[in-house]
Every structure is written in C-alpha cells, then in structure tokens.
Design brief:
Structural class of chain A: alpha/beta
CATH topology of the domain at 35-81 and 164-333 in chain A: Rossmann fold
Shape of chain A: globular
Largest interface: A-B, 31 and 31 residues
Radius of gyration of chain A: 24 Å
Strand content of chain A: 5-15%
Oligomer: homodimer
C-alpha cells in the first residue's frame, strides 16, 4: 500500500515536472516570433527595433500610423538567382510569341533568347531588356496582363529546385513581415520589378495587398471607346523603382519615411539611406547570399563580382559597414531558408 | 393634498414625456450618420450603398480589404471657387518671389499675376500655369515645400468668407467620408491638384493619411551629396492625375477598383466610369454647385459655361444622366454646407 502510494506520488511528481517542462517549451516557442532565425546580431537587431518602436514607455516609440517597413523583393524576399522570376516570365513569353514573330530569329535581343544563349543574355543591356519587356508586357490591358502572369506562375518551375517560384519565399523574411505586422507595422514591397507583376501574387504569397506594392511601371492609357473602359499597357517606361527611384517611389507612393528597410543589392542602397536619415529608431538590413548549399552564393560572399544586375557589390558592403547596416548571412543567421526545408 | 398629489403626478408625467421625447430625438440623431444631409435621393443612395456592400447577408457584400472609395478634392470636398487653393498659393508665392525676379514685370504669365489682372489670369493656358508651378513649386526639397504650404495655409484667407481655406470643407462630404470609414471603407483623395500639396493637410483636415492621397506630381530627384539625403522637386511634370489620369492614377497607386467615387467636374468623369465598370454595388456621385447664397453657383446650375478649368459641364451632366450617376444639389441636398453654418 505504501509503495503503491509512493509510486502514485512519484508518478504525479514526474507528470508535473513534465508538464512544466513541456508547457515552458511550448510557451517559449510560441513566444519566439522568428523561429527560423538563429540567435545572433541580426535576430537581436529585429527584436530590439520592434521593442524600441512599439513599447509605449520607449523614448523611441512610434505611432502606429507611422509604422512603415519596406522590403525589396528579388533576392530579399525570394530567390532571384539565376534570373528574376519576371525575367523568366519574359523569356517564356518570347518563346510563346515567337511563331508570330519570325523576324525575331534574326533580331537581337530576341535571337539570343530563342537560341537559349545564356552567355549573350548575361550581357543584355537595360535597352535589350526594355525591348523584351515592350514585346512581352505591353500592348494589352492590365487585366489581360495579370491573367498571363497568374497562368505562368501556376505552372512555371524555378531552376535547381524544380518548384513553383512562389515556393522560393524566404521563410525567415516572411516571419519578419508577419512579426512587424503583428506589431502594427504596415509592410510594403518596394521592388525594381514590375509593380503590376508583383501585385498579381503579393497578397496571397506575402500578405501584402496591391496598394502596398511599389514598383517599376510602364505607361498605361485609358481607353473607353467600346463603352467598357480598359487601361492599356504601352511599350514605354513610366517609372523605374530602383536605386534612387526607391527613395523617390517611397515618397511618391507612401509619403512617409520607413522605419525599417530590407534589401540585398546596390539598387536598395538609397532606400536604406533614406530610411536611416530619419530620426528615432531605424533599422536597415541587407540579405547576403552566402549559402551555396541551401540557396546560392554570389557577390562578395564568394569574392566574385557577379554579372547579375544590381548585385550586392563590394561597394555596398563598404557602405553597409560605414553606416552600421545589419548584414544578414543566410548561412549563419537562418535556421531554414524555405518552408520546405527540414 | 389631492391637488398637490395631482400636481406631483402631472409633473412626473410631463417629465417622463419630455425624457422620452429628448431621448428619442438624441437617439435618432446619433443614428443618423449624415446629419447635414436633407432626406432625398442623394442621401438614400449613400445609405443604400453602404447597406448593400457591408451587410453579410447582402448579395452585393464586399470584403473589407476591397472597400475603396475615392474623392476628388477641389469642388468636391472643399470650395474651389473663384480659384483652387493651390492656385492661390502659387499666386501668393509669385508675389513673394517677385523682388528677386524683376524680369517678371515684363514677362507673362507673371506680369498678369503681379498686375492682379484677373481677366488675363482667367485665360491662362495649362502651359502658363505650368510656368507658374515651375517657378513656385520646384527648385526646393520636398520638406521645404511642405513647410511653405503649411505656413501659407495657416495664414491665408479664402475670398468671400475671409476664413482659412481649411474651414471651407463641405461638412456633408466629411460625414460621408467618416460614415464610409466607420463601415470599413478606406477613403482616398484622388485629386488633379498637387499630391504633395494636399498631403500636407489631408490627415488633419479630412482624416486621410498621406498614403491615401493620389494627385498630380512633378519630377523629384534624389540628392545625397551632403550625406543627408533630400528629394529635390524639379520643374518638370511627372504625372497629371486628372481626366483619364484619375483612372490611371487609381490603378497605379491603389491597384484596386473603387466601389464609390465622388467628383464634381469633367476631370472626374473617367474616375466615375472606371468605378462603374466594376461589378456589384457601385456608387458614383457628382456635386453640383447650385447654391450662390451659401457657396457658389456655376456651370450648368446657372446655364453658363464656366471658364473654370474642368468645370461641371453640360456634357458631364448628359453623361451623368445617361449613366444614372447621382447628382448632389448643394442647395437641396445639404442642410448645411460648412461647419460654421448655423
């Protein structure tokens, strides 16, 4: 009887200890808003920034209406290597349209695209790309364009991973966006890519609604000849939201200075400068692609000047160091990169 | 004793009746979201639209994320007669800057402005106005410009009323904005006027934050030579948010089609067409200035083609009738126009 009672007590005690341990662990996990991040200066910088800007007692407290955070997309929120998703879309469109454009077989830049000449494509100028964009992104209504993008996204597969492009979202960055939103921040995408392209999937993929996507755009014109108004996409650049254009675009579209900005290339430098020039607590971060095993390594991570447009250059690394911007090492700071990683 | 008791009962009864009457009246007033509107088709159209789009059981229910309403500013939300506030600002700036520009005395359009020649100013072309805008709105940083606008607004007085321009907000329209916001709509200003100009006061005056102001803009450039980045305003048009530009601007800045749109001139026609082309419940309204006593009467209300840029033309009235847009008569539909009206 006594031993049986002891046994019962023992079991109870063990159960209680287990409960405390389990509850504690669950609680700790629930309390970590950035579970895909390893502990380190990058994670600590994000946590400290949110604490500084949202705790009422903080001298750096920011009113909810002013809590703006801006994110570059390609290379910052998802994989951009070996080519931006939108570039892939354009190349697919060239191939699809080629039968109706026999002249493209002899005409650059289309000739190289159709021949799959990656070396030549790597050397395309902005003018070359603009010709491709004009041929593939214009001459149709905004609605038709959005339909083309959605259809393409649903079936296209990213190189190396053989998965939809939208699977290649960086899970740690998604957690940062969600964490900031849970703390009253509005998260904007500020991309050098096409505004209308990104808006097609931004809400579903990032939880960012169309009105919070700032990007590059071509001219649109209003046509109501048939009594059913449409906006037609014209083969002419309207706004390039890259480099200085990111600071300009933020002022144009948001009219407020961000408190946090995230990028990964020289095209994001001015966005980070503009953010940092505000007073109070500001956070500037750059994603460094140094994980050849799980994603890609390029730029200064491999001591190689990358041919990729607007890459994380040595100059950017120097500016980041000078300005105390936080560099995120994908290899060291991220416990996992993609949702499908184990 | 009996009479005294009767008296007491009588008093009680009177008090109770009074209480019921007063409580009932207060309650009715609290329940009317549009107290400055007379009952009539315009008020009913607004109430029906909100019911249709926000009641879960309605076949025309709209998700809160999609509840977008757009408002022209000049003449729709505040008085635009005899000249837009921003025009007044520009003319004041010309006078202030004149001592440093002696050549303006001989050079149009500045000459007419400095001479106070209203007849000549009434005939200014868009090119003339652009010269004035270039001289008065550009060549400075965005911050300096916002400071100039704020300083001017604080001391400028509107003609006829001798009050600050911000007193000339239409109280009934403010109630519509507040009513829509209380029902989950986001209210955007979509103005032919300067985006940066309106953003200076939109939050304080209309409760519309800067990121919900879409307007015309001039080119800005990014300058970080001194290590403190600024955006410089250049004397070059970037975007004209008027006429077709309103539909284009809505797609560019918001990326969603409005469910309700409010305007007062031909420059708003495409915004209303674009709104109406969507499915489900849509509301298009035009403010008709037909109240010479309390505000102004111009356009078709007085059977006079008005020289005012983009006025409520006969053609617009014809289109409104054809499309069943709701015309708001300031005279008949509005119980009071300004907050200071009794």
């Amino acid at each position: 009887m006594k031993s049986s009672r002891n046994c019962l007590l023992w079991n109870l005690r063990v159960s209680l200890v287990l409960l405390v341990v389990l509850f504690g662990a669950t609680n700790a996990r629930a309390q970590d808003p950035l579970p895909s991040w390893n502990d380190g200066p990058a994670k600590q910088a994000i946590l400290a920034f949110v604490k500084d800007t949202t705790e009422k007692s903080s001298p750096k407290y920011v009113e909810p209406a002013d809590r703006i955070a801006t994110f570059d997309q390609d290379g910052t929120l998802w994989t951009e290597h070996p080519l931006y998703a939108q570039g892939m879309f354009a190349l697919t469109r060239v191939a699809e349209m080629a039968p109706k454009h026999p002249e493209w077989k002899q005409k650059e830049p289309f000739k190289s695209v159709l021949a799959g000449d990656h070396a030549a494509m790597g050397k395309f100028t902005e003018g070359d790309w603009m010709q491709i964009v004009a041929a593939t992104h214009a001459g149709m209504s905004t609605e038709v364009f959005q339909g083309l993008v959605s259809d393409w996204l649903a079936k296209a597969k990213a190189p190396r991973f053989d998965r939809p492009f939208t699977d290649l979202i960086f899970q740690p960055m998604l957690e940062v966006m969600q964490y900031l939103r849970a703390n009253g921040f509005r998260t904007y995408i500020v991309t050098g890519g096409g505004q209308e392209f990104v808006r097609t999937y931004s809400e579903k993929v990032y939880g960012v609604p169309p009105e919070q996507v700032v990007g590059s755009s071509i001219v649109t014109t209003y046509d109501n000849k048939s009594g059913k108004p449409v906006l037609m996409r014209e083969p002419k650049v309207f706004f390039i939201d890259d480099g200085p254009g990111k600071a300009i675009g933020i002022n144009l579209f948001i009219g407020k200075r961000p408190y946090a900005a995230f990028g990964n290339t020289a095209g994001d430098a001015q966005m980070l400068e503009w953010t940092q020039a505000g007073d109070g607590a500001r956070l500037e971060m750059l994603v460094l692609h140094d994980d050849a095993k799980r994603e890609y390594a390029y730029g200064p991570a491999v001591n190689l000047p990358d041919t990729h447009v607007g890459t994380f250059s040595e100059a950017l690394l120097t500016e980041a160091t000078k300005n105390a911007w936080v560099v995120i090492s994908m290899k060291n700071d991220w416990k996992r990169i993609f949702k499908f990683d184990q």
